[in-house]
Structures are given as C-alpha cells and as structure tokens.
Specification:
- With 462 residues, the protein is mainly alpha-helical.
- It contains 14 helices and two strands, in the order E-E-H-H-H-H-H-H-H-H-H-H-H-H-H-H.
- The chain has a two-stranded antiparallel ribbon.
- Strand 1 and strand 2 form a beta hairpin.
- Helix 2 crosses helix 5, helix 4 runs parallel beside helix 9 and helix 11 packs antiparallel against helix 12.
- The longest helix has 38 residues.
- The two termini are 25 Å apart.
C-alpha cells in the first residue's frame, strides 16, 4: 500500500477518479482542494437551480398550483433531507478505507449505504402515502391548496428512494475522492427533468397536459435516471451486492448523530420563520430574502467542507494524524479567506442586491436590519463550516451533534423567542443566528486544536 503522505488526489481527466502525485497529504494545495470542491459545489447548487426553474414553469399555471408545489415540495424535502448521513457518513467511512488503500472496502460502504437508502426510502413512500392527506391538510391550511399539494406529493413521494440512493452514491464517490462523476449523474437527471417539466406541465409537443402533477412526474423521472446511474456505477465495480447488516448498523450509529444534528438546525430555522411571521408580512418577506442568500453562502462554503471530509478521512485512514491536523487548518484558512471575500462582496452590494428580489420599501427597510448581521457572520461561518467538514471526515459525529444542540439551546433558540417577547424583530433573530455560529465555531476550533478527533485507521469506530 502506498504511503498516504505521498499520494494526493488529482482528476485523471477521464471519469473523475483520482491519480497520484508526490505532494504530501497534509500539504494539499489549491489544485487538489478545488478539484474536489468545485464539482461538489456543482452538485449542491444543481438541485436549487432546477427548483427555481420548476417554480417558474408551474407559476404559469397560477397562484394555486404554485402554492400546491410549495407545500408538496416542502413535505418531500423534510422527509428526505434529514437523512444526510447517507452522504456525509458514507463519505467519512469510505474515505478512511480509500486512504488505507482499500478501495473495495470503500465501495462496499457505498453498496450498504445504497441498500439502506432503498430500504428507508421504501418505508418513507409507504408511511407518507398513508399520511399524505392529513399532513398536507395541516400544512396547507386551505382545502384548495391541500388538494393541489396532495396530487403532487402522491407522485413525488416515489422519488424518495431515488433521492436517498443519490445521497449514498455521492457519499462513497466523495470518499474515493471522485466528485466529478456524481456531478455528471446529477446534472443528467436534472437536465432530463428540466426538459420534461414544461412538456408535461403544459402539454407541449403533443404530450398530455398534466399541469401540476406533470411537475412531480418530471421530478421522479429525472431522479430515477440519476439513481440508475449511481447504481450502475456500483455494478461496474464488480463486487458482491449482498446486504451486510453489521456494516449497515455501523452506518446507522453514525447516522443517528447526524440526524439529531440536522433536526437541531430544522428546529432553529423553523422557529426563526415562525417568529419573523409574527412581526408582519414585511418582516417575514425580508427574513426570507436574506435567508435565501444565507443558504447560497452556506452552499458555497459547504463545497470546501466536502473536500475536507474526503481528504481528512483518507489521511486518517492511511494512519497520518499529524498530516490530517495540518490539512485541517489549511482548509480552514482557505474557507475563511473565501468567506471574507464573500462578505466584502455582499457588503459592497448592500444597496443593490436586495432590490433584485423586491422593490417594496417596507421589505427593503427590514432587509437592511438583517443585512449587516448576515455579512458579519460570514467569516465566522467560514471557520465553522470548514472544521465541521474536518470533524465529519474524521467521523466525530457525536461531538458535532452535542456542539450543534448546545449552540442551538444556548444561543439561537433563546434569542429567537426573546425577540418575540421583547419585540426585537429581525435584529434579535439574526443576533441569534450570529451567536449560534459563533458558539459552533468556538466549539469546533477547540475540538480541532485538541487533536482528539484525529483517530487513525481504516475502520471508523466511534
């Protein structure tokens, strides 16, 4: 087995797999980090871009269809995106084996994660088909919207197992430091969905006019194609596809911590939206504008965190704790500089960017309240997200769970509800977000500096 300190991943120019160079693993430079981060960023932004297109297509049917899409899409998103351990957890486990020279073991992690994706996805379809009616009724609030949402959701739910298969596929491929092929698979599926969406919704080119349900079918067909491509990639590896319950149990243990962490995020941001809505339409609209921009920033920073996961896992798998520690701080420096650049751009555009979203003066006034919190927290997020990626790559999910829950309970949630009690509005809500990020950043810096996360070996045991 080659020494991992002498092997650095670079695209080989064909399928996105990696070749070897002579740089030290702990001294990864710009080309290596960006070679992993940029394709990962493409995967992260592809789905939101498609959803914007889908919204534009459905929007031509009218407000009722658009409301139905919003409710149905929200429910499908909530029941599928909580299972990020299928990507992040699989990356951590597969990367260690890849770093140890055990590519077959890394692929086996992908096979078992895919079985979990199919099994959990099937349960989601069965349970949510039974609950779809009451759930949409509760969320929609009106019979007309609930009817539209229910029609979309009943079809869209069939895509849940395929969404999860894609997560698992991204996970093991990132683990073997191959982020280009997942990008291709995702883009192919979304491109086909983008072609089918207007055709099926509006009945173009002789197709039946399915209206809102056509959007759901376009989503499911595109997800099916991406899912098949990920499964075909596993089949080409030529390994046994037999389920291995022992491996799946280990993945679920890691998944338990990541799901708890994800639920903490959801509790915070749902609470923030609920409190913002209590201050009136202008406040909640402004919160939504700034929050969407925040989500964009988090996606860009997450791409570097994904590179950190793959590189840290591989370095620890190869048995090089010191190299992993050097790499952790190097990627953190990169992420912080990138975040500072983003902060400078958004600060310079404070008078222009909000007007791309609205011309309502009341909303713009409220955007101004949140804007400088949004800009100021970016460098802190650069540190927090990078070290999140480092600790995820190391499999230190239990610590991340505790740190996130603690930061939410001590920082974000109290500030959100105090904002309602004392009428602090968006200033209080975004102070809560800033405090949440500061606490998270402090906790992951402390943990990384301690070195206790840098446990070497191919098998991730936490």
């Amino acid at each position: 087995m080659a020494d991992a300190d002498q092997s650095v991943a670079e695209p080989d120019g064909s399928d996105g797999s990696v070749a070897k160079t002579d740089d030290a693993a702990g001294d990864a430079g710009a080309r290596r980090i960006l070679g992993l981060a940029l394709p990962a960023l493409g995967v992260l932004v592809a789905e939101p871009l498609y959803l914007l297109f889908d919204t534009a297509v459905v929007g031509r049917l009218g407000a009722l269809a658009l409301a139905g899409l919003a409710v149905g899409g929200l429910i499908l998103t909530q029941v599928s995106t909580q299972l990020t351990f299928l990507s992040y957890g699989t990356t951590a486990r597969a990367a260690r084996m890849h770093g140890a020279g055990d590519r077959d073991g890394a692929v086996r992690e992908g096979i078992q994660a895919t079985w979990l994706a199919i099994g959990i996805g099937t349960v989601i379809v069965i349970v949510m088909q039974a609950l779809a009616g009451p759930v949409t009724a509760v969320i929609a609030g009106g019979d007309d919207i609930a009817t539209e949402a229910l029609d979309w959701l009943r079809v869209g739910l069939f895509g849940a197992p395929l969404i999860l298969v894609g997560m698992a596929g991204n996970g093991w491929m990132r683990g073997v430091q191959n982020t280009i092929r997942p990008l291709r698979f995702v883009v192919v599926g979304l491109a086909i969905s983008a072609v089918l969406c207007p055709v099926l919704v509006h009945g173009l080119a002789g197709a039946p006019r399915l209206e809102l349900v056509g959007s759901a079918w376009a989503n499911v067909i595109g997800q099916s194609i991406s899912g098949v491509l990920f499964i075909a990639a596993l089949l080409r590896e030529g390994q046994s596809l037999r389920p291995q319950p022992a491996v799946m149990r280990k993945q679920l243990v890691l998944g338990r911590d990541l799901i708890a962490r994800s639920l903490a995020f959801q509790a915070c941001f749902v609470s923030a939206a609920a409190v913002a809505s209590r201050f009136g339409a202008a406040t909640v609209a402004a919160h939504q504008v700034v929050l969407q921009l925040w989500n964009f920033v988090t996606l860009t920073l997450d791409s570097l965190a994904i590179a950190a996961q793959a590189l840290i896992g591989a370095t620890l798998g190869a048995g090089h704790a010191a190299a992993a520690q050097r790499l952790a701080w190097r990627i953190t420096a990169w992420s912080t500089v990138f975040a500072l650049v983003l902060a400078a751009l958004f600060a310079a555009g404070h008078a222009v960017i909000p007007q791309l979203f609205t011309t309502d003066t009341e909303v713009l006034d409220q955007v101004g309240v949140a804007w400088w919190f949004f800009v100021g927290v970016m460098p802190i997020a650069g540190v927090a997200f990078a070290l999140d990626g480092v600790l995820l790559g190391a499999g230190d999910a239990a610590f991340l769970r505790n740190a996130t829950l603690g930061s939410a309970v001590v920082g974000f949630l109290p500030m959100i509800w105090l904002s309602l009690v004392f009428d602090w509005g968006l200033a209080g809500i975004w102070t809560g977000l800033a405090l949440f990020m500061a606490l998270r950043a402090a906790s992951v810096v402390w943990r990384t500096a301690s070195g206790r996360w840098a446990v070497v070996g191919a098998d991730l045991q936490r």
